[in-house]
């Protein structure tokens, strides 16, 4: 670990954490710390336990054993899988972002305050989505929707952004643009990022830490992307190497 990272505060710490559903563990115990400014990629095949682990980290599911220790008053923004978001609500894009900006405001005072409106406008501008402000969220393309959701993340002053397959419905060009924007927001705001992705070359390019989850093999592997990709469990699942091109198949 780099010396600079040693001085960063822990935002989340997993201590002998075992996750599962209905009290039955699906993965071995895991110890790791997520520090401010880190970019984590969570990889593994479908059914490997990625979403279960994220939901346990957030306190949405109880731990089977061990514990998650979160920093006091840590500000978290969670974007679930696109299938978990309801596009039927008749919200404008700026109203979706406004939800993220309400942290620390009273419900009655938030939407009408000038400071709040300016915060929403700044967040939309930062992700180049100002022109989407008055458009219905459900009418936007997948890439536009994701930009609005990233603006919501910015408006919430998140210290850590947890993104579950944020690019799953995008084409390759939009996917790369989304990851470039995530990295830009991470660096400009000093936030930590945890992102689930099935595109391994993207993981290698953008992440500085990786977590491989494999419920079938009962393995969890923590390290840099290079270290994780060289692990025997990874190589058994994905082969001996990760293609350098973003044109790799989704796994």
Provide tags for this entry.
three-stranded antiparallel sheet, 36% helix, 251 residues
Q: Specify the helix fraction band.
A: 25-40%
The low-confidence runs, each spanning 5 or more residues with pLDDT under 50, are: 104-112, 245-251
General form = globular
Instruction: Look at the structure and give the mean pLDDT.
Output: 84
**Radius of gyration, taken over Cα atoms and rounded to an integer in Å:** 18 Å
- The tally of helices reads 10
Verbal overview:
- The structure is a single chain.
- The chain is built from 10 helices and 11 strands.
- It has a 6-stranded mixed β-sheet, with helices on both faces.
- Helix 5 crosses helix 6.
- The model is unreliable at 104-112 and 245-251 (pLDDT under 50).
- The relative contact order is 0.17.
- Helix 7 (172-189) links the parallel strand 8 (160-164) and strand 9 (192-196).
- The protein is an alpha/beta fold and 251 residues long.
- The chain has helices at 3-6, 50-57, 93-101, 107-110, 114-126, 142-155, 172-189, 200-206, 225-230, 232-238; strands at residues 10-18, 20-21, 24-25, 30-35, 39-43, 65-70, 76-79, 160-164, 192-196, 209-214, 219-223.
